[in-house]
Specification:
Shape: elongated
Largest sheet: none
Order of helices and strands: HHH
Distance between the termini: 29 Å
Strand content: under 5%
Oligomer: single chain
Number of domains: 1
Mean pLDDT: 93
Length: 81
């Protein structure tokens, strides 16, 4: 999949792709296990915020790379109504 130029018109797989990756408890616990030496409320919170920010940054990059495609498709869909 070309994340920098998603096909929002013909490709249902790309259209159904998550804009932001999910963050599960399992993933968070793995990150904590791998990245934190001393597990405290502060360090766990910091890990969560880091994971959340990384996902948000990635989603923002994908969104910005595809904003023209999104606008174009939204206009097409509105015109059909």
């Amino acid at each position: 999949m070309n994340w920098d130029n998603l096909d929002l018109t013909e490709n249902s797989h790309e259209r159904d792709a998550n804009l932001i990756d999910g963050l599960t408890f399992d993933t968070l616990l793995l990150e904590i296990s791998c990245n934190i030496n001393e597990i405290t409320l502060f360090s766990v919170r910091a890990q969560f915020i880091e994971d959340l920010n990384q996902r948000a940054d990635e989603a923002n990059s994908i969104f910005e790379a595809n904003i023209d495609n999104i606008v174009k498709q939204a206009k097409k869909e509105r015109a059909r109504k």
